[in-house]
Amino acid sequence: MNALDIIIKKRDGLALTRAELYYFVNQYVAGEIPDYQAAAFAMAVYFQGMNDVETADLTLAIVESGDQVDISAIRPGEIVVDKHSTGGVGDKTTLIVLPMVAACGLPVGKMSGRGLGFSGGTLDKLDSIPGFDTQLSSERFAAQLREHGIVLVGATGDLTPADRKLYALRDVTGTVPSMPLISSSIMSKKLAGGAQAIVLDVKVGKGSFMKTVEDASELAQRMVNIGKETNRQTVAVLSSMDQPLGNMIGNALEVREVIDVLKGGGPADLIEHSVTIAGHMLVLGGIADDLEAGKRMAQTTLTQGYALKKFQLLLSLQGANTAVIDDPSLLPTASLRQPIYAATKGTVAKVDALQFGEAAVKLGAGRAKKSDTIDYAVGFEVLVQVGDTVNVGDPLYIIHANDAAKIAQATMQLQESVEIVTGAVESLPQFLGVVS
Predict the structure, then answer these.
(1) What are the counts of helices (DSSP H) followed by strands (DSSP E) for the chain?
(2) Residues with catalytic function
(3) pLDDT digit string, tens, across residues 203-217
(4) What would be the CATH architecture of the domain defined by 71-325?
């Protein structure tokens, strides 16, 4: 068995065996297969694709290239459910969903990542909370999950080193948009992190990596198929990302909105989105009989304050200042605020999530490259959604910044981000389908 034969076999459109995929992945991680052969392999997969069994075998090979977390040993006899979002603008649902689910008695141990590009990362939001420790040891992760049923951290140990190498290579060889490679990359991290059941939030639209329902459906189906092939219950929800989710974009601003929701306030779209994702998790975890029952349970944790208490517990356990719950001004706050007003009367026909996401990166709320530093205070407060009616002079959004020049830049960049028309416009749907 050698790398060249495997590349040729895939180039010619033949299915690879589990042994061949394990060999290729292990030899690549060990440095025995050079980058140029791995690039040729990725390009062959890009053009020829993979069947479900191949994709699952590739995923497991990536999982077994590094450390793995054994969740089942931490909470024996219980199902620990994970969630994953493919990334969106203003998507802070993890910080709401986890406390809701944990408050219903379903343990959640989640490893999240940092943001790159216009899609914000959960760890960056947590870093905006004074004192919050996202880098727990494996032992502390296990103890907190065992005793309290909730933990939210960055990746512990050396998880999926093969994925890190392959992703870096794909990024510079034009092979990122390959469905088998995308789905194996996402699912390998979930499996290595110990997920026993997985709810996938697959974003669709301008502010996501999947621009069409067709592409998002294919990605969702592939990831669900990996779950089936690896004996993990998996559900994928297709959700709209043509406009930002909620009102806030930017790390500390989004944490403020999370606290508002957990206190019983917050925007309706963010509440509905969070309740629905939590409902799916509760069904997979065996806590709820069906989605509607799961949603009712999740909603109750908000109205009765149980989710807020779980969030406070999470902050306390991981070293954060819990006073931010009652005094959000303790979070990083921008020195400058610039409202942008409607110049015409009418109905909002567009709130471009991609434009707001890209503008947030330029403000300093996200990273254009991994080495960039983040300004946790900056971002946008979006005050309108598609379908809203506005009058001349109504505020459309507010820029939060620490640099007047960046306010001017954002104002120019967002000139066409909100479109107002005459006549009625239907509001955008929250969800576009479910794959299970």
Answers:
(1) 17, 13
(2) 84, 163, 170, 185, 189
(3) 999 888 888 999 999
(4) 3-Layer(aba) Sandwich (3.40)
